[in-house]
Amino acid sequence: MNKDLSLKFGRLIREIRHEKKLSQEELAFRADVHRTYVGMIERGEKNITLENIDKFCKGLEVTMEFVFHKLKDEN
Description:
75 residues, mainly alpha, Cro/C1-type_HTH
């Protein structure tokens, strides 16, 4: 697992979630994942799958392209 990438991804998800004024619980509901999973992803503790990235993007109402572009810009 690339810990640095997981941390960057988690920070980005948290940033977008805060911009949209969503709680972890609300994002979990919208993304159809467990609430604790959202926290683990935001802290970079888990390696997320493409399927779950898609769920998070749908829950946040952003595209995967947007998320990957933001990640690329961080480097």
